[in-house]
Predict the structure.
Amino acid sequence: MRFALVDEKLVPKPLLTTGHPTYPISQINSSCTPQCNSAFDFNPELQTYLSGRQLLLDELPFPFAEIQEHYENGYLVYRQGILLKGKSCKCARCGTTEARWFSVFPCARCGENCLYCRQCLMMGRVSSCSALVSWTGPEPKAATVKQHLLNWNGTLSHGQAAASAKTVAAISQSSELLVWAVCGAGKTEVLFKGIEHSLQQGGRVCIATPRTDVVLELTPRLKAAFPRTTVASLYGGSEDRHLHAPLTIATTHQLLRFYQAFHTVIVDEVDAFPFSVDKTLQHAVQQARRPGSALVYLTATPNRKWQRECLQGKRAYVTIPARYHRHPLPVPKFAWCGNWEKKVLRNTLPQNVLSWIKHRLNAGKQTLLFAPKIASMEKILPILRKLHPSIESVHAEDPDRKGKVTKMRNREIPLLLTTTILERGVTFPNIDVGVLGAEDVIFTESALVQIAGRAGRSASFPAGEVVFFHYGKTEAMVRARSQIMRMNREGARKGLLD
Amino acid sequence: MDLFAGEYCLLCNAEVGHETSWTSVFLRSSRTQVCAVCQNKLKLLEGELCQRCGRVLEPGYREGRVCYDCLRWENDPEWQGLLSFNASIYHYNNFLKEVIARFKYRGDYALAMAFSAQLREKTLGAEADLLVPVPLSEERLYERGFNQSEALISAAGGEPVNLLSRVHGEKQSKKTRADRIHLPQVFQIIPDMVESIQGKRIVLVDDIYTTGSTLRHAAKMLRAHGAESVCSVTLAR
């Protein structure tokens, strides 16, 4: 849309009554935002819709004239969707600056060649003539804060309790904290006290995670823990899209629609794809938090840089080095298996892999077997099925992924062959874990720690064997193993293991 | 320009063509826009095709080299011969459905370039005087920001000539075949363009041929104003 600058104020072309020249908003440099007129009778519906958000004009189901009236009275601002600076450009919503994500189209709205961002396109196109709208007026009144009581009767382990106390402290001081908790430590419960604290101060809290699965899993747990608090659950296509709630659980993608909204942001699984690879999602977290807000990161596997920063004292962190059931983490064994890909082409597997699998099938011990590629899985599955007909495989694009995971839980599948898609988030009570081709680049240190973390999770079956079958040991494998051993030592030292 | 910079697939954004050869250095124009994985998911319409609408002929649904749908159109005196033929490129499978949705509804204009070569081949093959886009109503055009038919013509390297306008109505995709065929005419000739139609061989370009009724309504209008022939090219069938 084109805008004119009339008396220092932006006026969209459809509402323009004078002959002022109009331009796409990205070509108008106006830092002036109208003063908030406290006598103005604003629309509370627009307020709850827009507060803490950044939305495109298309996303606002209110008449132009009404939106403009709120702008002129200082209740909302129009920001440039694309920031042009010399030859470079930046998407104001997702923060992308890489040239490859931008493209040009002849735009019917502004009549010019418009630059648009392809990175966050699926959330509605941001182009050089689009305005991002955010609320600057008073915030919606929060319901009485006393109601946000935590209703959870469980007890925390010693490790959890220590981390919980640190989290509360970080939240009350509005600082940053990394909670480095081993797989199966019970991370979610550690958050409860901190969330309660923030809510009781009248703050808005957001738990962001890269994966929709995790949003769906966390929502009922938090609703149960905070029965009198409204919880918004946001992911692509969710129904809570416009719910203004004190507690929001969202995919990191959905954060792109928020702007200076939260007093506390908790980012779960910082290292998980796509958050760690996607700078835009880091940007989303920064945009969604208020200036001077608390930021808590949760992970079992921080990257090398973060690990270093922790050990050098440059990053505030707390570890939970042991599982809540007080048994050590299973330490992975390494087993050289030669050129397994060549074997697979000949419709067989390395001898030691075969005998390991047969042993498990005979003993009736359920097994998860990870392999690097979908392509190799397709060849491996028929080989495994000769050993047992009910063996299944699963990968990201498998339409029956959920069904197969359920079958595995019900013990209907003796061995499940999988890509890294099941490296985190799934819990099967009593399993052994194998990785075939652990030398592949896809098996990073953090992926391998997560994979090893699938074994021995339940208190009734705290042991489980983890074997990395490889054709050449990699640094990632060695680091993963030493990280696990370090956590076990720390757990023992702190008296968190029996 | 960074000669060794990776190229990215237009459809899935994965990096393609790491290998740098002399050809890739000197002939930048021949670079791959679509990675092999995506290319594989696109299925060309091949084999025995309906002479009229370009679909793959199936046994029990054909008479000679024409499909039953086209027979119905051609046996109806109102529609007989209005559209000389339609040529389409790909099967409208789930993958292409998603690509077209991203292109048209999400407004990812750049995607048209993924089909540049195939569109060029088909439009040139139609031997026409004018490449004409199927118009959008003003409201729809504002909503989407661009007309997908025009984008496809530009991607084919052609010059879109707007001859038609459209009155605003319900979305085609929300209607049944009977609804679509018995629709009142939604197209009009843009008054200034009446003279440019006389005796011209016209190719209509659109993203998808579903029942063929949109294209036939447009063809009817163009033929009534003196077009010598009207055929169509679409990305999907």
The radius of gyration of chain A is 26 Å. Residues 333-493 of chain A form a domain with the Rossmann fold fold (CATH 3.40.50.300). Chain A is about 30% helix and 20% strand. Residues 178 and 297 of chain A are 5 Å apart (CA to CA).
